[in-house]
User: Fold this.
Amino acid sequence: MDLTAKITIDFIVDGIKEFYVEILEIPEEVSAGELQEIVDKRAQKVKQIKHAEIVYSSIKINRINQMKH
Assistant:
């Protein structure tokens, strides 16, 4: 069964709160540590590109139910 990971990063640029959301399909074998690394890398990228202050980051995992025909 496949999984989706929804990454959310809240950040502030010039006093304005913004957010970044990304949804990834991931294999079920991915560890919690690997998922945290993905979130950390995305947060660093946002921080560098936007010159932002990261306020909060999270990841939510959902299963993809595949229908059989």
